[in-house]
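Chapter summary example.
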Amino acid sequence: MGALAVGRVRIALVSVAALLLLAGTACGERSEPTGALVQSYPVTVQGSGDKATVVSSAPRRIVPVGAGPKAILQSLGLARRTVTVDDTLVGLPLVDAIRRAKPDLIVASGETDPLDLARARTATHSAIYVEPGSSVGNVVQAIGDVGLLTGRAVQARRLTAAIEAKRQAVTRRVAGSPLVTAFVDTGGFATISTRTLLGDLIELAHGQSVAGASPEQGPFPVKRLLELDPDVYLATAGSGVTLKQLRARAGVKRLRAVRTGRFSILPPEATVAGPQIGEALEQVARILHPDAGR
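The structure predicted for these 294 residues follows.
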């Protein structure tokens, strides 16, 4: 082989090595994509449903069932492909409304009745994605999954990166702060499990729901609540609970949180498994630790 040929081979090898190094560095840094991303189909993702969701092409008519799915589709810029139905319906009326919408993808919250979804699948032959929504991590997964299914992976990555940034900011802000105990009243002294999205938000904000992982259905016993005596009394948006009502009720008015006025109404986003969950986490952290980070 001549000197000129050898030189060309060496240049080619150096060029390939440089490209590989550049690619490896980019993968390590996980830099944000700036250009268009061509989505390859078919796509298969596993939500919280019993079956994986498979789409062979980008869905053109998407029906959301639940507040979380609606918020995700809106934030991904899919309003034109979204066909809304009255998702306050249940049973056959809901199935019929979905059938008439003629979707090729249904995105449903985890609270949707599985039987309704099974009937909707039979009636429409559409793909169904059930959103996992019992933690902030679940919401991040759902946004990523829906982004892949709909060809909006780049947009989904931006949304999830924003949530993660807020989670890290909250962690830094409350670091070193004492653990704050809280009771969450969803109305009539009914409460939440720590295994719910709101329970996860409280934990990430360095708090602890005193009701635990498995509170009984119905009103939480006032006697037990007095024994636990939480630092903060929280009420969900729409619960109708007020501090004035609590102070007028025998027994409850003796709670430390009620006496000192450590009562707050949670933001509506705190119970919606959607892209605004990062902002909701920040608000919960400010409620539990008003002086942290100052």
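To summarize the output: Residues 3-29 form the longest helix (27 residues).
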